[in-house]
């Protein structure tokens, strides 16, 4: 068990507070209202006990990258009222049903097939919030839809009755200035809103670049280690 996982770890609260202070300051510099920005705590590889502790500190939005981990934690913590799970990893069609059972939002829809699979997996009349992940690199092997295909994918998602298109998601490339990358994301978000005016979410910014994302209009930040501490070693 790492220090970040210890019951009642006071440093967890301190890290959470420090990040929230950083978000507030970045929002102030950008002339934005910090209350309009959603902070998602990414708990990849950390145990459900850490999520429970975060919940006790007021966290209600958490994110996972892997379906198996998402499903296990969501089941263990099903009794926590108001806890929302965001799936932010690469989605596979054969895992769409499991993702849909556990998550309230999926940030990584990047092709029609995964959108169709998530729609087919609906078991009630509820809507699943989805975002279109955009590939900001020239590498077609990276996750995300090519910008040239963005409107076509948005139009397809709008035809699926159990999905609610919320906006776009992107990860800044390691070899590019994040401010420039997120400026491009802002432009892509405007293109999606031309197709779907209610798709106002921009999921962008992580531990190292959330200030630049806020300056470019991000509404949802995906922050992990700055809050959770180092990830536990994987055996």
Key traits:
235 residues; disordered N terminus
The percentage of residues in β strands lies in 15-25%
Summed up, the domain count is 1
Just give the CATH class.
Alpha Beta
Kindly report the oligomeric state of this protein. Answer: single chain
Number of strands: 8
CATH topology: TIM Barrel
Major sheet characteristics: 8 strands, parallel
Indicate the mean pLDDT.
94
- The name of the CATH superfamily reads Alanine racemase
- Low-confidence stretches are 1-7
Q: How are strands sequenced across the largest beta sheet? A: 7-6-5-4-3-2-1-8
Task: Using the 3D structure, state the CATH architecture.
Answer: Alpha-Beta Barrel
Description:
The chain is globular. The chain starts with 9 loop residues before the first helix and ends in a 7-residue tail after the last helix. Helices cover 39% and strands 17% of the residues. The protein has an eight-stranded parallel sheet. The chain has helices spanning 10-29, 48-56, 67-76, 96-102, 112-120, 150-158, 178-195, 210-215, 225-228, and strands at residues 38-42, 61-64, 84-87, 105-109, 128-134, 163-170, 201-203, 220-223.
